[in-house]
Request: fold
Amino acid sequence: MISKKTKYGLKALIYLARQYEQGPILIADLARDENIPKKFLEAILLALKNSGILQSRKGKGGGYYLGRSPRQITMGQAIRVMEGPLAPVPCVSESAYAKCTECGNENTCGIRLVMKDVRDAIAQILDNTTLADVLERIDHAEQSEKNVIDFCI
Amino acid sequence: MISKKTKYGLKALIYLARQYEQGPILIADLARDENIPKKFLEAILLALKNSGILQSRKGKGGGYYLGRSPRQITMGQAIRVMEGPLAPVPCVSESAYAKCTECGNENTCGIRLVMKDVRDAIAQILDNTTLADVLERIDHAEQSEKNVIDFCI
DNA sequence: TTAAAATCTATCAAATCTGTAGACTAACCA
DNA sequence: TGGTTAGTCTACAGATTTGATAGATTTTAA
Reply:
């Protein structure tokens, strides 16, 4: 299960993607609109900035904005910043490999063999889904729902 | 990342699968052979028993053993017992659905749309990989490694 | 130079994870 | 029947992570 931190971060990114190239957005506005504790959100946005996904400007007229186009930011990149590696076990992580302390022979570990497949399946999806893709899917879902409502009327 | 508890549990299941139909296995032997803290392992095996995956017998000659054939126990079943639902967010879980507190409209939530795909990909693998499959993959990997060594000699 | 807004530091409560200790119960065997 | 074996139950405790708050500081625009 992903943490609240990750959910908040993803919500913030989707929010900022929706307003891409419309100037800096205030943390306060984002926190209010998405129901995220402001101080908590500050730390999350800072982490996303330090990873290069976001940029910011201080002082009056300042705020946060995407560091590059929504087409060039993937869910995988964002989730790794907030949640850590996608891999279920460190010994199959591509971005942050580490030896499992309890494992003997890595080549013949049954858990590892299975978890490698799981990691690849997760990464296949998250590293190929951009913020732009997510916006499209949301629009599509909203359209579908609207049609259902129209149909009911 | 999966917890140590889950890793210990999976190791124990693989260990027990390897000795299927050879009578009850002692917690103490399992703990020693797999380097798992005994008292911690006790709690894990008990949970696996309560879920029906394992069975046990008390007293002399007692111990733990698989409740059904390794062909009929999947990694998904086992992991859900120790780690909880496979889904990254509760609102896409098949085994333990729950509404996300922070989500407004579930039908148009972008995070949900993506995480549904992730859950399905994970479940596709883990619910179709049995303990017998894992044993086979281990054997295969050990054979491959042996060949490499022979080749080097 | 003043106000706005991000940034940094520190702290904290609650939950979860990992592991331990000891009493209790069931089963076997002599 | 009594002793030994081995799983079961209850409780706890330290470490780490999570979620959140408070206040001081720095940067920038007007």
About this structure: Chain B has two domains: 4-66, 70-152. Strands of chain B lie at 54-57, 63-66. Chain B has a mean pLDDT of 95. Chain B touches chain A through 43 residues (CB under 8 Å).
